[in-house]
Amino acid sequence: xxxxxxxxxxxxxxxxxxxxxxxxxxxxxxxxxxxxxxxxxxxxxxxxxxxxxxxxxxxxxxxxxxxxxxxxxxxxxxxxxxxxxxxxxxxxxxxxxxxxxxxxxxxxxxxxxxxxxxxxxxxxxxxxxxxxxxxxxxxxxxxxxxxxxxxxxxxxxxxxxxxxxxxxxxxxxxxxxxxxxxxxxxxxxxxxxxxxxxxxxxxxxxxxxxxxxxxxxxxxxxxxxxxxxxxxxxxxxxxxxxxxxxxxxxxxxxxxxxxxxxxxxxxxxxxxxxxxxxxxxxxxxxxxxxxxxxxxxxxxxxxxxxxxxxxxxxxxxxxxxxxxxxxxxxxxxxxxxxxxxxxxxxxxxxxxxxxxxxxxxxxxxxxxxxxxxxxxxxxxxxxxxxxxxxxxxxxxxxxxxxxxxxxxxxxxxxx
Length: 415
What we know:
The protein is built from 19 helices and no strands.
């Protein structure tokens, strides 16, 4: 099949987009500087996604009944934090693959970098889970049974193979909350296994067509009579629309005519997205079926990312470049992975209860959980993950000389 010869130049902002949220290593044949190729806005997007998830698990999800009406209204967006992660992953990962698809070491470098980025934190969390489980089996710690190990029914080997999301769907539970959050990592790892092959075989327009097809098919699968809640929440085919919305955006910003279309009609799309935001709120007057809402939220998040490339300034870019969001984005992966185990430990040891914020003491405990989680995530990023990231940066995509001045090699420590 036909293959693109490098990234087609659209604008200075869209050209080489995958350098966003990267620490690029630029070939001698390229004159761009690292600062010109870095988009801190995407760190901010990641910071928002992680903040939504952490606030949902630590504070919003355990709010007292008196706040239930307010919580319910905005609940979809807090739950949607993981969908924003999916959209961003599809956007960034496929962008890297598109930009390097003609490298001689395309598969080896991509998968090696993924392993060095994902595995250290993931298997550290898995090791702490197995250690805590061993302690619990020998010493019978009641506080662990309150919530963290309450539904400890999934086989440990399923986590090691990144297929625990299917066991969750089959058994109708999330397993141990200590490591239950890894279901989303399982979906992403399955995506990382398949999508390099698709990008290698298809050109950019064909990849966009595949992404749009998946966006249509996923909600259809969620509505099949045989698909219950756990299946349409955890199974990869039922959640692939969020990833593919990100893929669609990364293809669009590399296609000048399509990108110009969105620029021309930006205000109309702004209005449409605001309408979708209003429709997504869970109000007494309108409650969207969650099977539809997954796609609607993914579309909203995808447009937020696309909009970064439609304008050179504005409130959205200013918000996403804020220091707080960028810093959270830089530690978002370990923060996402560690916070639920800490949440269960703190509330279990202090109160012998599942996490909640019913009173001031529990709310203070939730704030303590967030503080501990952020601290551990920052330490993990700096002292534990750094050697693996540095190793990943030494792995560069190599191209045939014919590629000429278009050859650019990048590394991405955050994705």
